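Before the break, one more example. Copy the sequence into your notebook; we will annotate it together after we see the structure.
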Amino acid sequence: MRKLILVLTIGMLCSFQSKAQTDVDALRYSQIFPGGTARAMAMGDAFGALGGDFSCLSMNPAGIGLYRRNEFTFTPSILDMRTSSSYLGQGVDDSKYNFNISNVGYVSNHPVMGANPDGWQNWDFGIGYNRTNNFNSNITFTGINNNNSLLDYFVQQASGTTPGNLQNSFPFDAGLAYNAFLINPNGNDSANYSSVLPNHGEKQTMIINTTGSMGEMVISLGGNYGNKLYFGATVGIDFLNYNENSLYSETNQHDTVPGFKDYSLNRTLNTTGTGINLKMGMIYRANDFIRFGLAVHTPTFYTMHDDYSATITSHFDTMTYAPPTSSGSFDYNLTTPLRLIGSLAFIVGQHGVISGDYEFVDYSSGMLADNTNDFANVNQTIQQKYTAASNIRLGTEWRFGGISLRAGYSLYGSPFAGTSTPPNGANLSTTNYSFGIGVKDRGLSLDFGYIYSMSKQYYQPYSLTGQTVDGSTNSLQNNIFVMTIGYRFRS
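Here is what the structure looks like once it is written out:
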Protein backbone atom coordinates (compact mmCIF):
# COMPACT_ATOMS: atom_id res chain seq x y z
CA MET A 1 0.00 0.00 0.00
CA ARG A 2 1.28 3.47 -0.87
CA LYS A 3 2.39 5.75 1.92
CA LEU A 4 0.64 9.07 2.42
CA ILE A 5 2.06 12.58 2.31
CA LEU A 6 1.13 16.10 1.70
CA VAL A 7 1.14 18.53 -1.15
CA LEU A 8 0.24 22.05 -1.96
CA THR A 9 -1.16 24.40 -4.51
CA ILE A 10 -0.21 28.01 -4.55
CA GLY A 11 -2.24 30.64 -6.21
CA MET A 12 -4.69 33.45 -5.69
CA LEU A 13 -7.90 31.44 -5.30
CA CYS A 14 -7.01 29.23 -8.26
CA SER A 15 -5.10 26.07 -9.10
CA PHE A 16 -1.95 26.01 -11.15
CA GLN A 17 -2.81 23.68 -13.98
CA SER A 18 -1.55 23.27 -17.54
CA LYS A 19 -1.71 27.03 -18.05
CA ALA A 20 -1.06 29.60 -15.33
CA GLN A 21 -3.07 32.50 -16.75
CA THR A 22 -6.00 33.64 -14.61
CA ASP A 23 -8.10 36.68 -13.86
CA VAL A 24 -5.50 37.58 -11.22
CA ASP A 25 -2.85 37.98 -13.92
CA ALA A 26 -5.13 40.24 -15.96
CA LEU A 27 -5.73 42.45 -12.92
CA ARG A 28 -2.07 42.57 -11.94
CA TYR A 29 -1.01 44.05 -15.27
CA SER A 30 -4.03 46.36 -15.54
CA GLN A 31 -3.30 48.24 -12.32
CA ILE A 32 -0.96 51.19 -12.85
CA PHE A 33 0.64 53.31 -10.16
CA PRO A 34 2.46 56.14 -11.98
CA GLY A 35 6.14 56.60 -11.33
CA GLY A 36 8.21 59.24 -13.07
CA THR A 37 9.92 62.24 -11.52
CA ALA A 38 10.31 63.04 -7.82
CA ARG A 39 8.35 66.28 -8.30
CA ALA A 40 5.32 64.52 -9.74
CA MET A 41 5.39 61.66 -7.23
CA ALA A 42 5.71 64.07 -4.30
CA MET A 43 2.57 65.83 -5.59
CA GLY A 44 0.56 62.61 -5.78
CA ASP A 45 1.11 62.40 -9.58
CA ALA A 46 -1.68 64.99 -9.94
CA PHE A 47 -0.21 66.56 -13.06
CA GLY A 48 -2.98 66.12 -15.63
CA ALA A 49 -3.69 69.87 -15.88
CA LEU A 50 -0.25 71.21 -14.93
CA GLY A 51 2.19 69.93 -17.51
CA GLY A 52 5.82 70.89 -17.82
CA ASP A 53 7.04 67.65 -16.19
CA PHE A 54 8.25 64.48 -17.92
CA SER A 55 5.78 62.33 -15.95
CA CYS A 56 2.98 63.98 -17.95
CA LEU A 57 3.99 62.02 -21.01
CA SER A 58 2.52 58.90 -19.36
CA MET A 59 -0.56 60.68 -17.94
CA ASN A 60 -1.67 63.66 -20.05
CA PRO A 61 0.77 64.13 -22.94
CA ALA A 62 -0.60 67.64 -23.57
CA GLY A 63 1.64 68.66 -20.68
CA ILE A 64 4.63 68.50 -23.01
CA GLY A 65 3.30 71.62 -24.75
CA LEU A 66 4.05 73.74 -21.67
CA TYR A 67 7.80 73.25 -21.98
CA ARG A 68 9.79 76.36 -22.88
CA ARG A 69 13.24 74.77 -22.81
CA ASN A 70 14.91 71.47 -23.49
CA GLU A 71 15.12 69.22 -20.45
CA PHE A 72 16.84 66.03 -19.34
CA THR A 73 15.70 64.17 -16.19
CA PHE A 74 16.98 61.11 -14.35
CA THR A 75 15.23 59.58 -11.33
CA PRO A 76 16.63 56.72 -9.21
CA SER A 77 14.33 55.25 -6.56
CA ILE A 78 14.55 53.03 -3.46
CA LEU A 79 11.66 50.88 -2.25
CA ASP A 80 11.40 49.75 1.38
CA MET A 81 8.52 47.26 1.35
CA ARG A 82 7.05 45.74 4.52
CA THR A 83 4.24 43.25 5.02
CA SER A 84 2.28 42.11 8.04
CA SER A 85 0.34 38.87 7.50
CA SER A 86 -2.37 37.29 9.62
CA TYR A 87 -3.22 33.62 9.03
CA LEU A 88 -5.11 31.22 11.30
CA GLY A 89 -4.64 33.53 14.27
CA GLN A 90 -0.90 34.02 13.83
CA GLY A 91 0.95 37.09 12.59
CA VAL A 92 4.23 37.29 10.65
CA ASP A 93 6.17 40.32 9.38
CA ASP A 94 8.43 40.39 6.34
CA SER A 95 10.30 43.01 4.30
CA LYS A 96 12.23 43.68 1.11
CA TYR A 97 14.36 46.41 -0.44
CA ASN A 98 14.64 47.30 -4.10
CA PHE A 99 16.63 49.86 -6.09
CA ASN A 100 15.24 50.89 -9.46
CA ILE A 101 15.11 53.63 -12.08
CA SER A 102 11.79 55.46 -11.94
CA ASN A 103 12.40 57.79 -14.87
CA VAL A 104 14.85 58.89 -17.52
CA GLY A 105 13.79 61.24 -20.28
CA TYR A 106 14.53 64.07 -22.66
CA VAL A 107 12.24 66.80 -24.03
CA SER A 108 13.18 68.99 -26.97
CA ASN A 109 11.43 72.38 -27.29
CA HIS A 110 11.00 74.04 -30.68
CA PRO A 111 9.58 77.61 -30.77
CA VAL A 112 7.66 78.63 -33.89
CA MET A 113 9.60 81.44 -35.52
CA GLY A 114 7.55 84.60 -36.01
CA ALA A 115 4.58 83.04 -34.26
CA ASN A 116 1.27 84.95 -34.17
CA PRO A 117 0.17 85.46 -30.53
CA ASP A 118 -3.12 83.73 -31.39
CA GLY A 119 -1.47 80.86 -33.29
CA TRP A 120 0.99 78.06 -32.70
CA GLN A 121 3.73 79.09 -30.27
CA ASN A 122 5.91 75.99 -30.06
CA TRP A 123 5.98 72.26 -30.54
CA ASP A 124 7.81 69.74 -28.37
CA PHE A 125 9.17 66.23 -28.76
CA GLY A 126 9.90 63.88 -25.87
CA ILE A 127 11.36 60.40 -25.50
CA GLY A 128 12.22 58.38 -22.42
CA TYR A 129 11.02 55.92 -19.80
CA ASN A 130 8.57 56.04 -16.89
CA ARG A 131 8.09 53.17 -14.43
CA THR A 132 4.42 52.26 -13.93
CA ASN A 133 4.42 49.45 -11.35
CA ASN A 134 6.76 47.64 -8.97
CA PHE A 135 6.22 43.94 -8.23
CA ASN A 136 8.93 43.45 -5.60
CA SER A 137 7.63 41.96 -2.35
CA ASN A 138 8.14 39.27 0.28
CA ILE A 139 5.15 37.72 2.03
CA THR A 140 5.29 35.02 4.71
CA PHE A 141 2.38 33.51 6.63
CA THR A 142 2.04 30.48 8.88
CA GLY A 143 -0.49 28.82 11.19
CA ILE A 144 -1.94 25.59 12.54
CA ASN A 145 -4.85 24.32 10.45
CA ASN A 146 -7.20 21.99 12.33
CA ASN A 147 -9.81 21.85 9.56
CA ASN A 148 -8.29 21.05 6.19
CA SER A 149 -5.16 20.70 4.10
CA LEU A 150 -3.97 21.40 0.61
CA LEU A 151 -3.90 17.63 0.25
CA ASP A 152 -7.70 17.66 0.57
CA TYR A 153 -7.78 19.81 -2.55
CA PHE A 154 -5.64 17.30 -4.42
CA VAL A 155 -7.91 14.47 -3.27
CA GLN A 156 -10.93 16.33 -4.68
CA GLN A 157 -9.08 17.11 -7.89
CA ALA A 158 -7.96 13.51 -8.42
CA SER A 159 -11.39 11.99 -7.74
CA GLY A 160 -12.60 10.04 -10.77
CA THR A 161 -9.17 9.81 -12.41
CA THR A 162 -7.20 6.58 -12.31
CA PRO A 163 -3.62 6.72 -10.98
CA GLY A 164 -2.11 6.09 -14.40
CA ASN A 165 -3.74 9.26 -15.77
CA LEU A 166 -3.07 11.63 -12.88
CA GLN A 167 0.27 12.93 -14.12
CA ASN A 168 -1.08 13.73 -17.59
CA SER A 169 -4.33 15.21 -16.29
CA PHE A 170 -2.91 17.25 -13.37
CA PRO A 171 0.87 17.56 -13.87
CA PHE A 172 1.24 20.58 -11.55
CA ASP A 173 -1.19 19.47 -8.82
CA ALA A 174 -2.62 16.03 -7.98
CA GLY A 175 -0.15 14.26 -10.29
CA LEU A 176 2.79 15.58 -8.29
CA ALA A 177 1.07 14.76 -4.98
CA TYR A 178 0.43 11.18 -6.07
CA ASN A 179 4.01 10.62 -7.23
CA ALA A 180 5.28 11.98 -3.90
CA PHE A 181 3.02 9.49 -1.98
CA LEU A 182 0.90 12.31 -0.57
CA ILE A 183 -2.42 10.97 -1.85
CA ASN A 184 -3.22 7.27 -2.30
CA PRO A 185 -6.03 5.18 -3.85
CA ASN A 186 -8.69 3.88 -1.48
CA GLY A 187 -8.26 0.10 -1.56
CA ASN A 188 -9.84 -1.44 -4.64
CA ASP A 189 -11.40 1.86 -5.67
CA SER A 190 -8.52 3.23 -7.72
CA ALA A 191 -10.39 6.39 -8.79
CA ASN A 192 -10.88 7.74 -5.25
CA TYR A 193 -8.12 8.84 -2.92
CA SER A 194 -7.21 9.76 0.64
CA SER A 195 -4.42 11.98 1.90
CA VAL A 196 -1.53 11.36 4.26
CA LEU A 197 -2.94 13.94 6.70
CA PRO A 198 -6.49 12.78 7.43
CA ASN A 199 -6.56 14.16 11.00
CA HIS A 200 -5.33 17.69 10.24
CA GLY A 201 -3.65 19.88 12.84
CA GLU A 202 -0.63 20.37 10.57
CA LYS A 203 1.50 23.51 10.52
CA GLN A 204 1.06 25.34 7.21
CA THR A 205 3.66 27.85 6.02
CA MET A 206 3.87 29.82 2.80
CA ILE A 207 6.63 32.12 1.57
CA ILE A 208 5.99 34.18 -1.57
CA ASN A 209 8.79 36.16 -3.18
CA THR A 210 8.02 38.36 -6.17
CA THR A 211 10.26 40.55 -8.31
CA GLY A 212 9.85 42.58 -11.47
CA SER A 213 8.20 45.74 -12.72
CA MET A 214 6.17 47.42 -15.42
CA GLY A 215 7.57 50.34 -17.37
CA GLU A 216 6.83 52.37 -20.43
CA MET A 217 9.00 53.84 -23.15
CA VAL A 218 7.23 57.01 -24.24
CA ILE A 219 7.53 58.82 -27.57
CA SER A 220 5.54 62.05 -27.39
CA LEU A 221 4.70 65.04 -29.55
CA GLY A 222 2.78 68.12 -28.45
CA GLY A 223 2.24 71.79 -29.03
CA ASN A 224 1.05 75.11 -27.66
CA TYR A 225 -1.70 77.03 -29.45
CA GLY A 226 -2.07 80.66 -28.41
CA ASN A 227 -0.87 79.94 -24.85
CA LYS A 228 -4.42 78.75 -24.25
CA LEU A 229 -4.71 75.26 -25.70
CA TYR A 230 -2.10 72.56 -25.36
CA PHE A 231 -2.29 69.28 -27.25
CA GLY A 232 -0.21 66.12 -27.06
CA ALA A 233 -0.03 62.45 -27.97
CA THR A 234 2.16 59.64 -26.68
CA VAL A 235 2.91 56.28 -28.18
CA GLY A 236 3.63 54.03 -25.21
CA ILE A 237 5.72 50.91 -25.66
CA ASP A 238 5.21 48.95 -22.47
CA PHE A 239 7.38 46.25 -20.95
CA LEU A 240 6.57 43.99 -18.03
CA ASN A 241 8.55 41.39 -16.15
CA TYR A 242 7.02 39.44 -13.28
CA ASN A 243 8.69 36.63 -11.33
CA GLU A 244 7.04 34.70 -8.53
CA ASN A 245 8.64 31.99 -6.44
CA SER A 246 6.48 30.43 -3.75
CA LEU A 247 7.22 27.74 -1.21
CA TYR A 248 4.34 26.06 0.59
CA SER A 249 4.87 23.43 3.29
CA GLU A 250 2.85 21.39 5.75
CA THR A 251 4.51 19.82 8.77
CA ASN A 252 3.22 16.93 10.88
CA GLN A 253 4.59 18.63 13.98
CA HIS A 254 2.52 16.67 16.51
CA ASP A 255 3.23 13.31 14.87
CA THR A 256 -0.47 12.62 14.27
CA VAL A 257 0.53 10.41 11.32
CA PRO A 258 3.32 8.00 12.33
CA GLY A 259 6.17 7.86 9.87
CA PHE A 260 5.34 11.10 8.04
CA LYS A 261 7.28 14.32 8.66
CA ASP A 262 6.46 17.03 6.13
CA TYR A 263 6.23 18.03 2.51
CA SER A 264 6.93 21.19 0.53
CA LEU A 265 5.75 22.46 -2.84
CA ASN A 266 7.78 25.01 -4.76
CA ARG A 267 6.26 26.85 -7.70
CA THR A 268 7.80 29.40 -10.05
CA LEU A 269 6.17 31.71 -12.56
CA ASN A 270 8.12 33.99 -14.91
CA THR A 271 6.08 36.31 -17.13
CA THR A 272 7.33 38.74 -19.75
CA GLY A 273 5.24 40.97 -21.97
CA THR A 274 5.54 43.75 -24.53
CA GLY A 275 2.63 46.04 -25.32
CA ILE A 276 1.66 49.20 -27.14
CA ASN A 277 -0.89 51.94 -26.48
CA LEU A 278 -1.77 55.48 -27.50
CA LYS A 279 -2.42 58.38 -25.14
CA MET A 280 -4.00 61.65 -26.25
CA GLY A 281 -4.68 64.74 -24.21
CA MET A 282 -5.41 68.44 -24.05
CA ILE A 283 -5.01 71.21 -21.48
CA TYR A 284 -7.03 74.43 -21.58
CA ARG A 285 -5.79 77.52 -19.74
CA ALA A 286 -9.01 79.38 -19.00
CA ASN A 287 -7.06 82.23 -17.38
CA ASP A 288 -3.93 82.73 -15.32
CA PHE A 289 -5.63 81.01 -12.36
CA ILE A 290 -7.41 77.91 -13.72
CA ARG A 291 -6.43 75.09 -16.06
CA PHE A 292 -8.47 72.09 -17.22
CA GLY A 293 -7.09 68.82 -18.54
CA LEU A 294 -8.51 65.80 -20.32
CA ALA A 295 -6.74 62.63 -21.45
CA VAL A 296 -7.69 59.24 -22.85
CA HIS A 297 -5.49 56.14 -22.82
CA THR A 298 -6.34 53.36 -25.23
CA PRO A 299 -6.06 49.79 -23.93
CA THR A 300 -2.55 48.39 -23.91
CA PHE A 301 -2.25 45.41 -26.23
CA TYR A 302 0.29 42.97 -24.80
CA THR A 303 1.99 39.93 -26.25
CA MET A 304 2.73 37.69 -23.27
CA HIS A 305 4.93 34.69 -22.48
CA ASP A 306 4.82 32.52 -19.35
CA ASP A 307 7.30 29.94 -18.08
CA TYR A 308 6.21 28.00 -15.02
CA SER A 309 7.24 24.98 -12.97
CA ALA A 310 6.31 23.01 -9.86
CA THR A 311 8.38 20.71 -7.66
CA ILE A 312 7.29 18.73 -4.62
CA THR A 313 9.33 16.95 -1.96
CA SER A 314 7.97 14.73 0.81
CA HIS A 315 9.79 13.44 3.87
CA PHE A 316 9.01 10.27 5.79
CA ASP A 317 11.03 8.75 8.61
CA THR A 318 12.80 6.38 6.26
CA MET A 319 12.27 7.83 2.77
CA THR A 320 12.31 11.08 0.83
CA TYR A 321 10.32 11.43 -2.41
CA ALA A 322 11.04 14.11 -5.01
CA PRO A 323 9.21 13.46 -8.32
CA PRO A 324 10.60 15.11 -11.48
CA THR A 325 9.82 18.82 -11.87
CA SER A 326 6.75 19.66 -13.95
CA SER A 327 7.30 22.63 -16.22
CA GLY A 328 5.64 24.37 -19.12
CA SER A 329 5.38 27.56 -21.14
CA PHE A 330 2.61 29.41 -22.91
CA ASP A 331 2.14 32.37 -25.25
CA TYR A 332 -1.00 34.50 -25.17
CA ASN A 333 -2.33 38.05 -25.48
CA LEU A 334 -3.63 40.51 -22.90
CA THR A 335 -5.73 43.63 -23.45
CA THR A 336 -5.90 46.01 -20.48
CA PRO A 337 -8.74 48.50 -19.84
CA LEU A 338 -9.14 51.93 -21.42
CA ARG A 339 -8.53 54.87 -19.07
CA LEU A 340 -10.09 58.35 -18.92
CA ILE A 341 -8.55 61.19 -16.90
CA GLY A 342 -10.07 64.56 -16.05
CA SER A 343 -7.94 67.21 -14.34
CA LEU A 344 -8.22 70.62 -12.71
CA ALA A 345 -5.44 72.92 -11.47
CA PHE A 346 -5.33 76.29 -9.72
CA ILE A 347 -2.27 78.48 -10.27
CA VAL A 348 -1.57 80.92 -7.45
CA GLY A 349 0.64 83.49 -9.19
CA GLN A 350 4.32 82.63 -8.94
CA HIS A 351 3.90 81.11 -5.51
CA GLY A 352 2.13 77.78 -5.84
CA VAL A 353 -0.29 75.35 -7.43
CA ILE A 354 -3.10 73.08 -6.31
CA SER A 355 -4.09 70.28 -8.67
CA GLY A 356 -6.28 67.22 -8.89
CA ASP A 357 -6.89 64.29 -11.24
CA TYR A 358 -9.83 61.94 -11.52
CA GLU A 359 -9.17 58.69 -13.38
CA PHE A 360 -11.80 56.17 -14.49
CA VAL A 361 -10.81 52.60 -15.32
CA ASP A 362 -13.08 49.56 -15.74
CA TYR A 363 -11.13 46.48 -14.69
CA SER A 364 -13.92 44.17 -15.86
CA SER A 365 -13.01 45.01 -19.47
CA GLY A 366 -9.59 43.36 -19.32
CA MET A 367 -9.28 40.36 -21.60
CA LEU A 368 -6.99 37.38 -22.19
CA ALA A 369 -6.84 35.63 -25.56
CA ASP A 370 -4.98 33.05 -27.60
CA ASN A 371 -5.53 31.33 -30.93
CA THR A 372 -7.83 28.63 -29.52
CA ASN A 373 -10.18 30.83 -27.43
CA ASP A 374 -9.25 28.89 -24.29
CA PHE A 375 -9.90 31.94 -22.11
CA ALA A 376 -13.69 32.16 -22.40
CA ASN A 377 -14.18 31.07 -18.77
CA VAL A 378 -11.38 33.30 -17.49
CA ASN A 379 -12.77 36.35 -19.29
CA GLN A 380 -16.20 35.61 -17.88
CA THR A 381 -14.65 35.54 -14.40
CA ILE A 382 -12.96 38.91 -15.08
CA GLN A 383 -16.32 40.43 -16.06
CA GLN A 384 -18.06 39.07 -12.96
CA LYS A 385 -15.30 39.52 -10.36
CA TYR A 386 -14.07 43.04 -11.19
CA THR A 387 -15.70 46.40 -11.72
CA ALA A 388 -15.04 50.04 -12.62
CA ALA A 389 -12.88 51.97 -10.17
CA SER A 390 -12.20 55.62 -9.52
CA ASN A 391 -8.66 56.83 -8.86
CA ILE A 392 -8.17 60.25 -7.27
CA ARG A 393 -4.88 62.16 -7.15
CA LEU A 394 -4.33 65.48 -5.36
CA GLY A 395 -1.20 67.59 -5.08
CA THR A 396 0.17 70.99 -4.18
CA GLU A 397 3.44 72.88 -4.52
CA TRP A 398 4.57 76.17 -2.92
CA ARG A 399 7.66 78.06 -3.93
CA PHE A 400 9.92 80.12 -1.67
CA GLY A 401 12.64 81.59 -3.81
CA GLY A 402 14.61 78.70 -5.27
CA ILE A 403 13.05 76.14 -2.93
CA SER A 404 9.74 74.33 -3.53
CA LEU A 405 7.76 72.36 -0.94
CA ARG A 406 5.32 69.70 -2.12
CA ALA A 407 2.67 67.34 -0.80
CA GLY A 408 0.22 64.90 -2.32
CA TYR A 409 -2.47 62.33 -1.71
CA SER A 410 -3.84 59.60 -3.96
CA LEU A 411 -6.49 56.93 -3.62
CA TYR A 412 -6.71 54.04 -6.07
CA GLY A 413 -10.11 52.39 -5.76
CA SER A 414 -10.80 48.70 -5.27
CA PRO A 415 -11.11 46.70 -8.51
CA PHE A 416 -13.51 44.15 -6.99
CA ALA A 417 -17.23 43.97 -7.64
CA GLY A 418 -19.30 44.02 -4.44
CA THR A 419 -20.00 40.30 -4.20
CA SER A 420 -16.36 39.43 -4.97
CA THR A 421 -14.71 41.69 -2.40
CA PRO A 422 -12.29 39.71 -0.18
CA PRO A 423 -12.81 39.70 3.60
CA ASN A 424 -11.10 41.84 6.26
CA GLY A 425 -11.00 44.93 4.05
CA ALA A 426 -8.34 43.34 1.82
CA ASN A 427 -9.81 44.83 -1.35
CA LEU A 428 -6.55 46.00 -3.01
CA SER A 429 -7.47 49.68 -2.76
CA THR A 430 -4.30 51.71 -2.31
CA THR A 431 -3.74 54.95 -0.40
CA ASN A 432 -0.62 57.08 -0.90
CA TYR A 433 0.67 60.05 1.10
CA SER A 434 3.61 61.96 -0.36
CA PHE A 435 5.93 64.83 0.44
CA GLY A 436 8.90 66.44 -1.25
CA ILE A 437 11.25 69.33 -1.67
CA GLY A 438 12.96 70.77 -4.72
CA VAL A 439 15.90 73.11 -5.25
CA LYS A 440 16.50 74.96 -8.51
CA ASP A 441 19.54 76.98 -9.51
CA ARG A 442 19.40 78.35 -13.03
CA GLY A 443 18.89 75.36 -15.30
CA LEU A 444 19.82 72.70 -12.74
CA SER A 445 17.20 71.20 -10.43
CA LEU A 446 17.37 68.62 -7.66
CA ASP A 447 14.11 67.15 -6.35
CA PHE A 448 13.46 64.73 -3.52
CA GLY A 449 10.25 62.85 -2.82
CA TYR A 450 8.91 60.42 -0.24
CA ILE A 451 5.79 58.29 -0.74
CA TYR A 452 4.09 56.18 1.93
CA SER A 453 1.74 53.63 0.38
CA MET A 454 -0.77 51.33 2.11
CA SER A 455 -2.89 48.46 0.79
CA LYS A 456 -4.32 45.10 1.81
CA GLN A 457 -4.54 41.85 -0.12
CA TYR A 458 -6.11 38.49 0.63
CA TYR A 459 -4.29 35.30 -0.35
CA GLN A 460 -6.04 31.94 -0.16
CA PRO A 461 -3.54 29.09 -0.75
CA TYR A 462 -6.17 26.62 -2.01
CA SER A 463 -9.93 26.13 -2.22
CA LEU A 464 -12.21 23.19 -1.45
CA THR A 465 -15.64 22.27 -2.73
CA GLY A 466 -18.23 22.46 0.05
CA GLN A 467 -15.81 23.72 2.69
CA THR A 468 -14.52 27.10 3.85
CA VAL A 469 -10.78 27.60 3.54
CA ASP A 470 -9.05 30.36 5.49
CA GLY A 471 -6.75 32.79 3.74
CA SER A 472 -4.03 35.20 4.78
CA THR A 473 -4.75 38.93 5.13
CA ASN A 474 -1.61 40.79 4.13
CA SER A 475 -1.11 44.46 4.98
CA LEU A 476 1.46 46.10 2.71
CA GLN A 477 3.30 49.30 3.57
CA ASN A 478 5.72 50.77 1.04
CA ASN A 479 8.23 53.52 1.77
CA ILE A 480 9.47 54.96 -1.52
CA PHE A 481 12.36 57.41 -1.75
CA VAL A 482 12.98 59.16 -5.08
CA MET A 483 15.42 61.76 -6.33
CA THR A 484 15.39 63.54 -9.69
CA ILE A 485 18.31 65.31 -11.25
CA GLY A 486 17.11 67.64 -14.00
CA TYR A 487 18.70 70.12 -16.33
CA ARG A 488 16.86 72.62 -18.53
CA PHE A 489 18.64 74.48 -21.28
CA ARG A 490 18.02 76.27 -24.52
CA SER A 491 19.06 74.64 -27.76
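The domain at 23-489 is CATH 2.40.160.60 (Porin). Residues 228 and 387 are 36 Å apart (CA to CA). Try to locate both features in your own notes.
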